[in-house]
Amino acid sequence: MATVFQWSGKTTRGVIESGEITAATKEEVAAQLRRKNITPTLITEKKAGKKLFGGFGEGKVGDKDIVVFTRQFSTMIDAGLPLVQALDILSTQVENKTLAKVLGEIKENVEAGSTYADALKKHPRVFSELYANMVAAGEAGGILDTILNRLAAYIEKAMKLKKKVKGAMVYPVVVSTVAVAAIAIIMIFVVPTFEKMFAQLGGTLPLPTQMIIGMSKFLAGMGGILTGGAIVGFVVAIKQFRRTEKGTHITDKILLKLPIFGVLLNKVAVAKFTRTLGTLVSSGVPILDGLEITAKTSGNKVIEYAMMDVRKQVTGGKTLADPLTKVKVFPPMVTHMISVGESTGALDTMLNKIADFYDDEVDAAVNALTSMMEPMLMVFLGGSVGFIVVAMYLPIFKLITLIK
Questions:
Q1: Closest by Cα among 235, 232, 211, 219 to 181
Q2: Residue 118 CA to chain centroid, in angstroms?
Q3: Which of 45, 137, 301, 376 fits 284 for a cystine, CB–CB 3.0-4.6 Å?
Q4: Which one, of 351, 344, 356, lies nearest residue 282 by Cα?
Q5: Three-state SS for 119?
Q6: Are 151 and 131 in contact (CB under 8 A)?
Q7: pLDDT at position 5, please?
Q8: How many helices (H) and strands (E) does the chain have?
Q9: In angstroms, how far is the first alpha carbon of the chain from the final one?
Q10: Which of 333, 264, 329, 262 minimizes the C-alpha distance to 291?
Q11: At a CB cut-off of 8 Å and minimum separation 6, what does 378 contact?
């Protein structure tokens, strides 16, 4: 699990610098600092402070806030405004108070001689590593305004993709919750009324009726509390398990192999990987750095491990397509198109084309999932309620037959 570490260290010129880095271990932080020619003197885990009424922590800055700021900042840079002046104006204009505070600190760092990218890296909870590295490439190439526009477009597309996935999950969760709540109300409050009536009639009840009454007694008594506790305990256990790196890897692997959701998650992973790497490569970020950033921002441990393995083989002199084919994480079509992109010298264009294609595929998968889940949930709800109703009316039908 990634943690925020605070560090301080000396540059090759003997200047003391400090900041924050998000990483899995202290060793990883030290390795990142050495790559920047900084000798670390202190690395400590940042403690999360208590926040009153939601607080004003850096985690409260949303993607939409970043997109709006990035587009405005790009326009100002394109118009010829100095970096510090643009940051000063935006720090007083942005609606999000946390972002305003962060921009003020970034402005002070830039005024003190830091590059804009290095100033961004001191706020990893607001500006991701991908964002900071693309800005660094833009500063080095003198095309910061162009890079900022690409960043804004990338974040918007990433938000759209996230929204699609959330939309696919919301419908089945809501319907399932309503179905379970409806069945629980019937079992706990309605069935006991029928049970009292049947007790007065006497005789032997049909087997389905006995089953429903037994379940009703179980849920109305300690059974309901035990069931609720078991569900809560299972959810908490899964969350705790996912806090470990091994646990996250195992659960991510299972999710990718699920019959219905797995297909959707695979397509989302392809779209995110190709979009991220394509944006980085087209912005001038070196392929090895791009692969490392893509791995860390993938959101899935299976993809992350595969990308780091690919990066290791690319470092050894292999093409990108060859190790991608061997890890067998992405479909053959994707690796083939990447191979064509490498051979024609248009890797970034090919990656963005794959991303556009898989964005449409995610749309189709979401629609297919919704279409599939709707009848399944209706059958579950209708079948469950129907069985309860029939089971409750069987003794009444039997009584009417005896009377006749």
A1: 219
A2: 26
A3: 137
A4: 351
A5: helix
A6: yes
A7: 78
A8: 17, 3
A9: 71
A10: 329
A11: none
Q: Are 121 and 131 in contact (CB under 8 A)?
A: no
What span, in angstroms and rounded, lies between the C-alpha atoms of 132 and 289? 12
pLDDT band at 401 (very low <50, low <70, confident <90, very high): low
Pair of tokens at residue 166: 């959330």
Give exposure, 16-30, as e/b (b: 16+ Cβ within 10 Å): eeebbbbbeebebbb
With contact defined as beta carbons under 8 Å apart, do 341 and 331 qualify?
A: no
Which residues 6+ apart lie within 8 Å of 231 measured at CB?
none
Buried b (16+ CB within 10 A) or exposed e, 348-378: bebbbebbebbbebbeebbeebeeebeeebe
**Dihedrals φ, ψ of 128, to 5°?**
-65, 170
pLDDT range class, residue 203, cuts 50, 70, 90: low
User: What single-letter amino acid sits at 183?
Assistant: I
- Integer CA distances (angstroms), 346 to 178, 269, 339, 351, in order: 50, 22, 10, 9
**Sheet strands (E) in 33-158:** 38-45
Q: Residue 165 in contact with residue 264, Cβ under 8 Å?
A: yes
Maximum Cα interatomic distance, the chain, rounded to a whole number of Å: 103
Mean pLDDT over 5-20 rounds to 76
Question: What are the DSSP calls for 167-187, one per residue?
Answer: HHHHHHHHHHHHHHHHHHHII
Phi, psi of 330 (to 5 degrees): -110, 155
**Residue 58 predicted with pLDDT over 50:** no
Cα–Cα nearest to 6, from 50, 43, 37: 43
Put simply, whether the predicted model's pTM sits higher than 0.70 gets the answer: no
How many Å apart are CA 143 and CA 135, to the nearest integer? 9
Q: Distance between CA 333 and CA 331 in Å, rounded?
A: 5
Counting every residue written for the chain, the total comes to 404
What's the CA gap between 227 and 162, in Å, rounded?
A: 32
Q: Which residue reads 């833009």 in tokens?
A: 138
Q: Tokens standing for 42?
A: 């202190």
Distant-in-sequence, close-in-space partners of 33: CB < 8 Å, separation ≥ 6: 7, 9, 21, 39, 40
With tokens 């390795």, the residue in question is 31
Q: What is the pLDDT of residue 7?
A: 77
